[in-house]
Amino acid sequence: MSRKRVVSATINGDLVEFLCEPRQTLLEVLRNVLELTGAKEGCSNGNCGACTVLMNGRPVVSCLVLAMEAEGAEIRTIEGVACGSHLDEVQQAFLQGAALQCGICTPGFIMQTEALLAENPQPSEDEIRFYLAGNLCRCTGYDKIVRAVQSAAAQRQQASHSTQATR
Amino acid sequence: MSTGQSRKYKVIGTRPVRHDGVDKVTGRAKYGADVRLTGMLYAAMLRSPHAHARIKRIDTSKAAAVPGVRAVVTSADLPEQGDRIVELGEGAANMPHLSSNILARDKVLYRGHAVAAVAADNIHIAEEAVKLIQVEYEILPPEMDVVKAMRSGASILHDDLRTEFASPSSGDSGPTNVAKQYLFEKGDVAAGFSRSEVVVEREFDTATVHQGYIEPHNATALWNPDGKITVWMSTQGAFSARQQTAEVLRVPVSSVKVVPMEIGGGFGGKIPIYLPPVAAVLSRKSGRPVKLVMQRADVFEATGPTPGSHIRLKMGVSKDGKIQAAEAWMAFEAGAYPGSPVGMACMCVFACYDIPNGRIEGYDVCVNRPRTFAYRAPGSTHVAFAIESVIDEICQKIGIDPAEFRLKNGAREGTRRVDGPTFPRVGMVETVEAIKNSAHYRTPLTGKNRGRGIASGFWFNVGLKSSVTATVNNDGTVSLVEGSTDIGGTRTSIAMQLAETLGIAAEDVNPTVADTDSVGYTDITGGSRVTFATGIAAVEAAKEIQRQLVERAALLWDCDPKAACYVDGGVQGPDGKRIGFKELAEKLHLTGGAVIGNGTSSAAQQGGAFGTHCVDLEVDPDTGKVQILRYTIAQDAGTAIHPSYVEGQMQGGVVQGIGWALNEEYFYDEQGSMRNATFLDYRMPTTYDVPMIDTIIVEVPDPAHPYGVRGVGEVPICPPPAAIANAIRAAVGVRMRELPMSPPRLLAEILKAQTK
Ligand code: FES
Ligand code: FES
Fold it and tell me: Do B524 and B589 lie in a common domain?
């Protein structure tokens, strides 16, 4: 077992320092060291997307990222999506649209959707399906998830139009 | 879309946000793997690398000596079971089998079979220590194929297993892998076939498939010095998990408390237990709480897949398109221990139709694969693939529209199944009509290599036992404590039934899923039973609250309670007096304290669920890949309580069925090792593989439920493989009789047809 090291990263806007071993993944540190258990472990080999977080704005499967690679990075997890007690449009759309059944895949889908909408604010159904294809959901058949993403995109568009209008 | 009549209700049929929703979109909901206790150890398991072997010796001393290792256990740490059979809520369990599936005793019967476990300060130490356990095996030949395993001379898994024949006079089978025979007969089959114009007989094979829930199995256990054991876990049934754990450990059920955490999918696969007794004995040995979480490969290799099967099906139809006779023979993989759903498959195979003469024979066969378990309508999807394919072929032969054929022969109220029972009011033909009248079915499909198929399916839906406790708060809300673990929004569908009965808003009910010390006995979340049976319990609890509130109002008005009654969310009294629920709730402290309603359900039996599906697809003739273009499902939900979650069950079941139809299968090598135990290689549908799934909710209320609910969870998985096979035939002219209809299999059939 090699020595532990201190890693510092910005997690959900806060500068965080943590101790980790070289073999520990970002997912393990988030869940077991930092107690951010919102990212889920479905496979630990990059195939299910349940552990998706944003690293420097890009979606990553945190089970395939070593914790040490997070040095200096900006990490956003499901715990950092709501602003205070305000759910954001994606969370709201998943809730309203019944886009979850068991909910184990939901944090990963929401993070992946955040990345999609940041990249492409008005995705087509095909673009949504392509972008989310790395996130598995066994419960919903995806119909309501895709619709929730569409409705979140529309909500966000509307919100940005109305802020432009009031400017 | 809904053909609905539920508008007569205020709450039922609306779409409130689910009560646990915010926790689940913010990452705050606690699932089994999120449990963390002070001093908690992490455990790892040693699993068999062989599919079939005798365990000669286990040496754990090197593992135990690793610094940071706190306990090591093998089956020697679990009590002997003798030959006990124990009645669990959903059926009897053979205890020696249940126990040795959890930790292998003298033999390992499949690759991945658990052999030993280590608890250590962290998971990495535990995983390293596990590798130091030495096991000496005597390797035996594995039996992987269900039909071959039935032959004499097959490698025998259990020396003491004898076939339980349908008729006791059949004698002793001798050592065998065939655990049980099922046989059902009705009418005169030979006469029925001789009256038939067209007779089609075909054979079908279906692959072993996994439930595929995204959350791996987990359990955290604490065995206290006072003998009390607490288990935190994801399970479909806390009470079933409690009893299974107690029976394996041979302690009284009351000394085990199961705390059901949020559960990340189950589909039948989280009814059996694998981990709690192991975590418990590790805790007893170490004196610390122990957490055990499976790896994904373990989930595939060692937890209940649903069986592969071999089915032979014959049907005879007269000139006018009426079924005259039908016969089915089937063998299901039980896996390592007896208990496949072949009995249920036998009862489902002909259930959609009125069959005057029929015979069904089924076999439960042990093979060196993991012990199989329920997966959404267990057994019914296999047989739907067979019968719905044969019917399609018959329709083609006699030139009748497949929807017409189903209307002509579909089961109705009063139809007697081949296995005996007679249907009450059911909605089979209504679902066929809904498809026939749908925009989808009425729009012609055009284009090369494209085809359309339809198929129907049946599932029993069970009743079983449920309990709830509802307490009125003085702010006019109700706290609802229930024993049904919530896999897909049932907190809300149960709360809505309580709200409807009390005439309050769904949001004014706060549902909680409780541990086994805090609520009355409740059977598993399975069998499409929760919205039905726990719903009945909630309605009963609400009626009890109504009775008590009437008494409270009578006290306030100083009148005879008989002169008052509960209507429309309040109590009505003499002389036009009325007091609303909220106002009365505020006065509880003045009128005698808390109002608590208990409700149970145990006797109610569901009438059965039916669905009919229609699919359009396109086949790539160069690769054999199938693209689903359009999909419509019509299903009888009785009364849809929360339509969004009814649709969700339908859509989710369909997509699992599409995966079963087109891609999912266990690949084994000759030694019996699974070669695709990852989500990359066990190919479940992704967002990109499927279109939107259009739903038609048909509502033929079930008279056994106060609001007419029928369970909706299971039947949607049954028709897709057959509907897709029928559509493939329409698209490229080849008939697929083996699942999955994966690109290589379909391409081979296409090429074969071309060279003919
Ligand atoms: S747990 Fe990381 S992708 Fe599955
Ligand atoms: S909601 Fe269960 S896996 Fe997606």
Answer: yes
End of a domain among B539, B574, B601? B601
pLDDT digits (tens, 9 = 90+) for B674-696: 999 999 999 999 999 999 999 99
Looking at the fold, whether B622 and B699 belong to one and the same domain comes out as yes
Cα torsion B131, B133, B134, B136 to 10°: value is -100
The domain tally of chain B equals: 2
Location of structure tokens 């079979």: B113
What is the domain-level CATH number for residue B583? 3.30.365.10
Residue A21 and residue A4 in contact, taking contact as beta carbons nearer than 8 Å:
yes
Counting ligand 1 atoms within 8 A of each CB, the residue from A28, A29, A30, A63 with the most, and so the one to mutate, is A63
**Cα–Cα dist B137/B58, whole Å:** 9
What mean pLDDT value characterizes chain B?
Answer: 97
Nearest chain B residue to A99, by CA: B648
* Interface A:B, Cβ pairs < 8 A: 181
Q: B670: exposed, middle or buried (C-beta count within 10 Å: 0-12, 13-18, 19+)?
A: exposed
Residue pointed to by tokens 């003919």: B756
Tokens encoding B236: 């479909």
Q: Report yes or no on B688 lying in a domain.
A: yes
Q: Where are the domains of chain A?
A: 5-80, 89-165
- Strand spans (E) along B105-228: 107-108, 114-120, 134-139, 178-186, 198-206, 209-210, 218-223
Show the low-confidence residues of chain A (pLDDT under 70).
1-2, 165-167
Whether B559 has a pLDDT exceeding 80, the answer reads yes
Q: Which CATH superfamily is domain A5-80 in?
A: Beta-grasp domain (3.10.20.30)
Q: Are residues B720 and B623 in the same domain?
A: yes
pLDDT in tens, B578-592: 999 999 999 999 999
Average pLDDT estimate for B435-446: 98
- Whole-angstrom CA distances from B336 to A34, B220, B367 are 41, 26, 6
**Same structural domain for residues B634 and B743?**
yes
Domain holding B700, by residue range, is 401-406+423-461+607-755
Q: Considering only CB atoms, which chain A residues are within 8 Å of B531? A: none
Q: Are B385 and B127 in contact (CB under 8 A)?
A: no
Whether the predicted pLDDT of B3 surpasses 60: no
B386 in a structural domain = no
Residues B589 and B492 in one domain: yes
Boundary-marking domain end, from B551, B584, B601: B601
d(CA B402, CA B404): 5
pLDDT tens digit sequence for B596-608? 999 999 988 999 9
d(CA A137, CA A42): 11
Q: Which residues of B touch A36 (CB under 8 A)?
A: 27
Question: How many residues belong to chain B?
Answer: 756
Assigned CATH for A89-165 = 1.10.150.120
Q: What is the pLDDT of residue B1?
A: 47
- For ligand 2, whether the C-beta of A138 sits within 6 Å is yes
Q: Give the minimum alpha-carbon distance from B487 to chain A in angstroms, rounded to a whole number.
A: 5
